[in-house]
Design goal:
3-stranded antiparallel β-sheet; 6-stranded mixed β-sheet; mainly alpha
């Protein structure tokens, strides 16, 4: 089908919808594409473009097509993005002012994790009656009387506050209304287009010609050509819109009395008094009278032919009249008035120029003082005002005002026409105020309106017009000065005008709307709900006056719905929200599928439903809203101006539904919508920042699910790109900066890059510097900055960060009064910061304040009818505070209550809850803390490990918190190992830390923490396995962690102390004094850098005291010992008695005092040491893993006092404490040997002391002493068999066993010899060098005194008449002495000379194998092939 036929079909299809006798249709075409169509139809009321036809109004097809195109294409958006807000695209009234100074409706805040950008609004427009009353007068020479006729002024040239429709609003004009003709900016999508029009008859197509009105509409809209169908020629005929020679077609309505009503509003035409005619000008007077007759006929009937005839008569009269003729001014004036009327109807600028020329010529002939000069001045001012509205040249306004001021001087008070001059002068001043916003102009406008009102008595038929104009001027002054008194007066005058406004007047609805707008302005100023009630009431009254059949009803439905939504936002009344939805549903029913405004109605209804979803969280509303948004988008093809708005609205709704359901398809489609929206917007478009921000938000939301860096990176880039655009207001900038800060924070949490954290803080600080002091999210902004500073403090330890964090969080709390829904979150965050500051600086008031804030948060949450989602968070915060207070006060009740809170919170976070892993982690930490507090410690520790393992399971690889779970689990496993000494637990703990170290590469935030904990566990592993590599690695990890920690980091001190302890430990085992010196220097430097009130100072003092005591044992310098004692005492002064952290200080002080006692013999030191041990024992209740060592230390001190004073009570206490220590060290415990050996020694001491101090009576020995001797031998036997003890210690116990058995003639003596010989054999076998074998055979002092061990054993066997056993024992002894010596031909020292690396490797493997054999025994080691990896390595070294 060819284009012409396609256009004709479109016209005929549109014409088929017409309900008039003559059915015509039109299509608007540009670039070969049909932009819109239209058809002629009846109009319900006068709207500025309707044509009167026998009492009814009609819209021509050409006008309808242009109107539809403007309704669709008036599509600049009105974006006002705000953090976490969605403003619906429901229509709102634009307050009548030169610029839209009306604040948009208060956005409704969504409770969401992330902050969406404001939804763009739809809009509505309309022409409101302004009430200008310019006087254009024409004159006659008949009977010297003044005649006047009222004619209505056309709104097409009027520029009032009501006709200024916000150009940012989308889809501004309903179908039933024409665009405001004062808007001279042509839509670029329509400008240069062509319009096709055809008539549809029953028999086929008919002729269609555009009337003069349609031509003017086309000229106004920028249409280039009109193609009208010629049925006779079966082709299109073209008319160029700007062709001045074009013949204008007049409609039937042009010949009716109502013609002027469609064009002119409230124009008074005045006939000036005329002078009697001279005889010489009678012919000219006849022409003047004839012209006046035709002009009156035109006024009554609206037939252009009458106007043209009158102009011809005036021109002929002027041509025949001499320059000095007395009636020449009358002719000039009337010709100017007629030309002005023709301009008003046709818009031909030449007519306006002629009118100005004729008025000026008439004015020249009427000098100052002339009776009719005022009339001509008034006409000239009207023409100047018309030209100002065309060209917006302020000089025309100035000239018009000057004319009217002179005319006013010629109309003294009391003149019946003075009020019109006053009114016209006021309107010119108001127009100039709209142009330059000079407050003095609006002040003059109000004064002249008031003067005009004073001229009109109550009841005057035109009084309501002046009242309305005065109210509009007062409203304009309110927009400038924001004086509520002006607004109150405006409402008063609007109300009075409405009461006297004729109900049959079609402009009454516009007056109602003006009153509603004034009430709305006052509501936005004062927030008085009564004003908003008046707004809704007025709109509902207007809606009641528009029947359901009238085409303008849809617009009033939208306006009323918007007012209901505004009132809902203020009061939260669900009835208003339901009314808004109902009104939009009615509006949608009025828009059939082919209605060009259906897309707008769908969008408005969808937005209202979305608002109701925000309020009620009914998923059905959200799903329905998305469905309507999609339908509206489908009605807008690619390239449509309104498509961008629909894409944005749909993307917003999909983002919200994605937050509700997690359906990935929604967020993917939302991103697609925002990307297409962005592609439709040019780089310099003012809406681009908001569009790009919306896209960034969608990408950020998807990044939280994908855990991928690409979406997060793209989100940050789009936020940054939006901020670089210049067309961004403060509100949008505030939101974008805050969202960008959150994105940086998220990337920091995932990657640990400190630059992201610094960028986050910088963005939030810049946000707070913007001039949005009263922004609803300012408190949230301060809260986010406080949390970011807290995070940076935890990383760097900068004191200013934690103080600033507390200050910002306190400021956020101050801005949220009691009852604010966000107050609970602010309380929780401030409590967290205060607890953190307490953890690092020890100010008790911080901890107390943190607990108070968290308890208030809990009370707020518990008072709610339905506990909020964060209720479990309030329980967790209180538990953390109580756990911390337990660490300070050692009040078990605090810890028990904390664990109870954790368990309650666990019930609120079932499987699948995103915060369950964190809760399990915290609960595990609390149980681990309670495991060291007495009975049930093992069970608590087991549960702690289980919870930490569950937390780790919920944090798979890729989770940013997995490293924390691995470290915590390793620490708990380490605690289990200290209780059970199961080496597999130690291996498991190191595996956890190795994985954590892999997850924290160089530069990662957690790396120093992982290294510090790994160092502790490596040192413990060295202590039990004696592998030098573990100690070397522990030192290496601590040194690396120290480099990574900043000087002010709170964990740096612990790492420094641990490093010093590891160096001292290496000194003890390797003997390198440099290690000890280095450790002491580290501690002394740390002590020097700490202020005297630092709570961590006691930790340094205690560690330094231990190191100095170690050096005293080496060099025996009394000053070291005294300093150690002094440091211990100073450390203890920092803790109250009963504090659990006093234990290590008490223990170290007691040991140092015992050393000084041995050095000086001062019994006071010994007594003080015993007191310290006893206090330390009180701090380690039954079940605590450190209670056995505390018992042993106390027993040793009491034994020293027993040796001094020989008080048997001390000896009995020694035995009691050693027995208790032994009971707490079950079989397999690595320290059990020490308890067995110590208890045997003390029992032997007691036995010897009793024998010494008891007189032996003759007769048989009592059974008591013998049982004690056997018990001593049994203890030594068990110590000899303790496989977790080094071979040398076991051999020492077996030799003591032999001595006791031989001394007291016990039957277990032979078993003791057998055990000793086996241990000697094993010890020599495991020796790594020939020299070491010699040391183990001859260097052992106990063994050196028993070199005849095999002979003694054989002698005992012979005494027991076991000869064969005696021979075997002798052979075994000889084999130990000679056979093993003969087998080693190449000492390891020689191997070290050849290959040092291989020799070192051999030493390490030998040590590990010896440890394995000593722990598990030969049988188990052989069965397990000595741990295959060790055996393989050992075999390779052997080769």
């Amino acid at each position: 089908m060819c284009k012409n036929q396609n256009y004709l079909s479109g016209c005929l299809e549109a014409a088929s919808k017409s309900d008039m006798s003559y059915t015509l249709g039109a299509v608007l075409v540009k670039g070969g594409k049909i932009l819109s169509d239209g058809y002629n139809h009846h109009s319900s009321r006068h709207d500025g473009c309707a044509v009167s036809t026998k009492g009814s109004l009609s819209i021509h097809a050409e006008m309808h097509a242009i109107s539809n195109a403007l309704s669709i294409n008036s599509g600049r958006r009105n974006r006002s993005p705000a953090d976490k807000t969605l403003v619906r695209p429901c229509p709102r009234r634009v307050l009548p002012s030169l610029e839209d100074k009306t604040a948009p409706p208060e956005p409704q805040v969504l409770s969401s994790a992330f902050y969406p950008v404001t939804r763009r609004e739809g809009a509505r427009g309309g022409v409101l009656y302004g009430g200008h009353t310019y006087d254009v007068h024409y004159e006659t020479t008949s009977d010297l009387t003044v005649s006047s006729a009222k004619t209505k002024r056309t709104p097409l040239r009027e520029k009032t506050r009501e006709t200024r429709v916000n150009q940012n609003e989308a889809m501004a004009y309903p179908q039933s209304e024409c665009p405001p003709m004062d808007s001279r900016r042509r839509d670029p999508r329509i400008s240069g287009s062509d319009l096709y029009v055809a008539r549809l008859k029953k028999s086929g197509q008919g002729n269609a010609m555009p009337c003069w009105r349609c031509v003017e509409w086309c000229r106004w809209a920028g249409v280039k050509r009109i193609f009208h169908w010629d049925a006779d020629g079966d082709s299109w005929r073209v008319v160029k819109v700007n062709d001045k020679e074009m013949k204008l077609y007049q409609t039937r309505s042009d010949f009716t009395n109502d013609a002027m009503d469609a064009v002119i509003e409230s124009k008074e035409v005045e006939l000036p008094q005329s002078q009697p005619l001279d005889e010489n000008v009678q012919s000219t007077g006849t022409l003047l009278e004839r012209g006046m007759t035709h002009l009156r006929t035109f006024e009554q009937g609206g037939v252009l032919l009458d106007l043209e005839t009158s102009i011809s008569c005036f021109e002929d009269g002027l041509a025949t009249c001499s320059p000095t003729t007395s009636i020449r001014p009358n002719l000039l004036h009337n010709l100017g008035a007629a030309s002005f009327l023709r301009f008003e109807h046709g818009g031909n600028r030449e007519d306006l120029a002629n009118a100005l020329k004729f008025f000026r010529s008439a004015l020249d002939l009427r000098p100052v003082g002339h009776l009719d000069r005022s009339t001509t001045l008034n006409g000239l001012s009207a023409a100047l005002n018309a030209r100002f509205l065309e060209d917006e040249d302020s000089a025309d306004l100035d000239d018009g005002i000057e004319c009217l001021q002179e005319a006013l001087d010629l109309r003294p008070p009391g003149d019946p026409r003075r009020w019109r001059v006053l009114n016209n002068l006021a309107e010119l001043y108001r127009s100039r105020n709209m142009l330059n916003t000079d407050v003095s102009d609006i002040a003059w406008a109000i004064k002249y309106h008031e003067d005009a009102l004073a001229e009109l008595q109550t009841g005057h038929p035109q009084r309501y017009v002046t009242l309305n104009n005065l109210a509009l001027s007062l409203h304009s002054r309110f927009d400038i000065g924001r004086d509520e008194a002006d607004l109150d007066l405006a409402i008063q005058y609007h109300t009075e005008a409405l009461e006297s406004w004729p109900k049959s007047n079609p402009n009454r609805l516009d007056s109602i709307e003006s009153l509603a707008l004034a009430y709305e302005s006052r509501f936005r100023l004062s927030g008085d709900p009564a004003d908003m009630d008046s707004v809704v009431e007025n709109y509902q009254n207007a809606l009641a006056q528009v029947s359901s059949e009238e085409l303008g009803r849809g617009r009033w439905l939208r306006i009323t719905a918007s007012a209901c939504l505004t009132r809902f936002g203020n009061t939260g009344g669900l009835a208003d929200l339901n009314l808004a939805v109902n009104y939009h549903e009615q509006d949608l029913e009025l828009r059939p599928g082919d209605d060009p405004e259906r897309a707008t109605s769908l969008s408005n209804l969808a937005s209202a439903l979305y608002t109701r979803f925000d309020y009620q969280h009914n998923r059905e509303d959200l799903d329905t809203a998305i469905g309507y948004f999609r339908q509206g988008l489908d009605l807008l093809p690619e390239g449509h101006a309104g498509r961008s708005i629909s894409l944005n609205n749909l993307g917003d709704a999909l983002r919200v539904r994605y937050k509700e359901t997690g359906e990935k398809g929604d967020i993917d489609l939302a991103i697609t919508c925002h990307e297409e929206d962005l592609s439709l917007c040019s780089d310099d478009h003012p809406d681009r920042p908001g569009i790009q921000t919306n896209l960034a938000l969608a990408l950020y939301m998807r990044s939280s699910v994908s855990q991928g860096g690409e979406d997060l990176r793209a989100s940050i880039e789009n936020f940054q790109a939006a901020l670089t655009l210049g067309a961004m207001d403060e509100t949008l900038r505030f939101s974008t900066l805050l969202n960008l800060a959150e994105a940086f924070g998220t990337r920091f949490e995932r990657c640990g890059n400190s630059r992201d954290l610094d960028s986050q803080i910088k963005c939030v600080q810049e946000t707070l510097e913007t001039n949005v002091d009263n922004h609803p999210r300012r408190a949230s902004c301060m809260d986010q900055l406080g949390q970011a500073l807290l995070t940076r403090f935890n990383r760097t330890g900068d004191h200013t960060d934690i103080d600033d964090a507390v200050n910002y969080l306190s400021g956020a709390l101050e801005q949220l009064p009691i009852g604010d829904p966000n107050r609970g979150f602010a309380l929780a965050n401030l409590g967290d910061a205060l607890r953190t500051r307490f953890d690092h600086f020890g100010k008790r008031e911080d901890l107390d304040a943190a607990l108070i804030h968290h308890e208030e948060h809990y009370e707020i949450a518990s008072r709610m009818d339905q506990p909020p989602e964060d209720f479990s968070g309030s329980l967790i915060n209180m538990a953390l505070d109580l756990h911390t207070r337990f660490e300070q006060d050692n009040d078990r009740c605090d810890l028990d209550l904390a664990i109870a809170y954790y368990n309650n919170a666990l019930g609120l976070r079932p499987s699948g809850h995103p915060g369950r892993s964190t809760l399990l982690h915290n609960l595990g930490q609390a149980l681990r803390a309670r495991s060291g507090e007495g009975e049930g410690c093992s069970d608590d520790l087991t549960m702690a490990v289980q919870y930490l393992q569950q937390s780790l399971y919920l944090r798979p690889r890729g989770n940013p918190d997995r490293g924390h779970s691995l470290v915590s689990l390793a620490v708990a496993i380490h605690s289990q190992f200290l209780l059970s000494r199961n080496q597999k637990l130690m291996d498991y703990a190191m595996e956890c830390l190795e994985e954590a170290l892999d997850l924290a590469p160089e530069g990662h935030l957690m790396r120093p923490t992982v290294l510090s904990n790994f160092a502790v566990i490596r040192r413990t592993n060295f202590y039990y396995r004696r592998n030098p590599d573990d100690l070397h690695l522990a030192i290496q990890y601590n040194e690396e962690a120290l480099v990574l920690y900043s000087e002010k980091h709170p964990d740096r001190l612990k790492t420094l102390v641990n490093l010093a302890g590891s160096l001292c430990l290496r000194f003890e085992h390797a003997g390198d004094a440099a290690d000890l010196t280095s450790g002491i220097e580290h501690l002394e430097r740390a002590l020097k850098d700490r202020p005297s009130d630092d709570p961590s100072l006691s930790y340094i003092l205690n560690a330094l005291a231990s190191a100095l005591h170690t050096r005293f044992e080496l060099v025996r310098a009394r000053t070291d010992l005294d300093d150690a004692i002094e440091y211990c005492q100073e450390s203890l002064c920092r803790y109250q008695k009963g504090h659990p952290d006093r234990w290590s200080g008490l223990n170290n002080l007691a040991i140092a005092l015992r050393s000084r006692y041995r050095l000086t013999g001062d019994r006071g030191d010994l007594e003080s040491g015993i007191d310290c041990h006893r206090e330390a024992l009180e701090l380690r209740s039954i079940g605590h893993p450190e209670r056995p060592i505390t018992l042993s230390n106390l027993a040793m001190a009491l034994r020293m006092r027993f040796d001094l004073v020989q008080d048997r009570t001390d000896l009995e206490l020694v035995l009691q404490y050693q027995r208790e220590a032994l009971e707490l060290r079950p079989k397999g415990h690595p320290d059990r040997w020490h308890s067995l050996k110590a208890l045997a020694d003390e029992m032997l001491t007691k036995l010897e002391w009793v024998e010494m101090h008891t007189q032996r009576l003759p007769g048989p020995e009592s059974p008591g002493p013998r049982r004690e001797r056997e018990a001593i031998a049994q203890l030594l036997e068990e110590a000899s068999c303790e496989v977790t003890t080094p071979l040398a210690d076991r051999l020492e116990a077996s030799l003591d066993w032999i001595a006791v058995a031989r001394r007291f003639n016990l039957p277990s003596a032979m078993g003791a010899y057998v055990m000793a010989l086996e241990l000697v054999d094993t010890s020599v076998t495991m020796a790594r060098t020939l020299e070491f074998q010699h040391f183990r055979l001859a260097g052992n002092r106990r063994y050196a005194r028993r070199r005849d061990l095999a002979c003694d054993a054989a002698s005992l066997a012979i005494d027991q008449q076991r000869v064969s056993n005696a021979v075997e024992l002798l052979e075994q002894g000889r084999g130990v002495l000679f056979t093993h010596l003969a087998q080693y031909r190449l000492p390891l020292d020689d191997l070290r000379l050849v290959n040092p690396e291989l020799a070192s490797r051999f030493l390490i493997l030998s040590s590990q194998i010896e440890t394995t054999v000593a722990t598990d025994g030969w049988a188990s080691a052989i069965e397990n092939k000595i741990e295959d990896p060790l055996r393989v390595d050992y075999d390779q070294v052997g080769k």
